Amino acid sequence: MASRLLPSAAALFLGAAACSSPDASPAPSPPASAASLPPAPAPLPSAAPPPEPARCAAVVCTAIERCDEATGACVPHCPAGEVYIPKTGPDGFVMGKGFTLNGGARRLRKGHQPDSDRPHRVVLTRPFCMDATEVTVAAMKTCVDAKACDAPKTLEVWANYPRRPDHPANEVSWDKAKKYCKAQGKDLPTEAQWEWAATGGDGRKWPWGNDEPTCEHADFTIGVLVSPGGDSGCHGGGTSPVRSHLKGDRTWPTGTLHDLAGNVWEWCDDTYAKYGTGPVTDPHVQKPGVLVHVVRGGGWNRSNLGIQTAFRGAAIHTYEVPGLGFRCVRNP
């Protein structure tokens, strides 16, 4: 019985030897599940290229310009209704046609001073924005209603205020015009600014060029002026709505200026004085005690000479007449 129940000694010896043999291969381990594996390390982020410096970061533009990010250059940025007028080049432009030389002042009469418009060179070092039109009755009324301006005269036969909203505000003194411009954060133009805007320095007789004016160019008096306050002008006396004579526009790359010739004379900030003969930079004539200011551009009741871009007029600061109005400029 015992011999059938117990293995033989040889069998035990062989079994033990098989388990302990150094040449025996271990039994393979079961594969680990994917959930039990440690996560793969995340890839290291690649180094980002340094940001390019903004083109406009170090660019300083004037208040009437903005920096163009594409080019890094200052470009015009005037408000709506205004036209950007660039500065002149370093050589400037020539002001003065010599109308009053060699007895011309006597022939012109009306208070012209002898030798008052001698040719001389002018340089403007700053751009500016100019109103595209003469200040209208509607714009003036808005300012008056806001109690920021004084109303023009209303009783003259050709007075526009307040009944002709799209006509230029006329019957406006220099003081009232100055107050309006200041209320808009602007100024009256200097005489040099006005002429540079009207001509671009190329010596043209009128804002549109050298073609003789017609009633398509401007509202003015063709032929002999019978009376400054008479039934004159291209439309039988009085002003025209602004932008009525598009053939006479002065066009810049940045916009168009209307009615710089005719319709109404326009106040300048400068006091009236004779031109010097030497070159000047950014002239702004303010003579203490002088109450007479320059007017430019002529009006509906002036001839083709009076509406030339170089023709100088003058009026005392309280002057309020139907043929006199204004426009403003925005300085940087």
From TrEMBL:
Coiled coil: none annotated. Residues 1-24 form the signal peptide. Residues 103-330 form the Sulfatase-modifying factor enzyme-like domain. One of its GO terms (molecular function) is formylglycine-generating oxidase activity. The keyword Cell cycle does not apply. Pfam families: FGE-sulfatase. Keywords: Signal. Residues 38-49 have a biased composition (Pro residues). It comes from Polyangium fumosum. This is Formylglycine-generating enzyme family protein. Residues 19-49 are annotated as: Disordered. The keyword tRNA-binding does not apply. Transmembrane segments: none annotated. The lineage of its organism: Bacteria, Pseudomonadati, Myxococcota, Polyangia, Polyangiales. PROSITE patterns: PROKAR_LIPOPROTEIN. It comes from the Bacteria. InterPro entries: CTDL_fold, Sulfatase_Mod_Factor_Kinase, SUMF_dom, SUMF_sf.
